[in-house]
Amino acid sequence: VLMEKRGLIRGEGSLGSTKLDQRGNSPTFRCMRHFVVQNLHITHTGYRETIMCEAGRPIFENCVIKNDVDDGINVIGTGNPTFRHCYVGEVAKSAFVFFEGARGLITECMVRDNKGHGLRCVGKSAPTIRRCNIVNNGEEGVVATEEARPTVEECNVRANLGTGVDASREARPRVLGCVV
């Protein structure tokens, strides 16, 4: 789904009752502008991320996001998404990857049981992660490299195979009020 215009996609019923199962080698959602996705269970199978945010300020609320081959969510360029009350799990690689210059807000989400990192930040990316559980991932909970500046506030980052929070090169993560 290429989102180039404002819009709303909302699943009806309880969480999990509206499912989007995509099998293909392009992202399920490619975000180019502000729009809202609510109450969807999104499963992606294919050699691409489930969601690619390239621009705009899309909002994902009360969603389940899975990917059994690649990353869950990649944010690049001027992408500045918000993920609120989402479950991002059972992802074959990293749940979230923020690339050069990308921003975003991840709040009150469950990021667990992914084979890679819970959150990976590279370049000059600067997302804010607030009141999330980042647990039981196959690599680090949060990793920042190059000049990344993630802010991790009031999160539970534990039981990941790698360290809770890892920083290398010029990265400067801010970790405030977290259990790590």
How does this model look, in words?
- The protein has 180 residues and is mainly β.
- It has no helices and 23 strands.
- An 8-stranded parallel sheet has the order 1-4-7-10-13-16-19-22, with no helix packed on it. The chain has an 8-stranded parallel sheet with strand order 2-5-8-11-14-17-20-23, with no helix packed on it. A 7-stranded parallel sheet has the order 3-6-9-12-15-18-21, with no helix packed on it.
- The protein is globular.
- The chain starts with a strand and ends with a strand.
- The relative contact order is 0.12.
Labels describing this entry:
180 residues, globular, eight-stranded parallel β-sheet, 23 strands, mainly beta
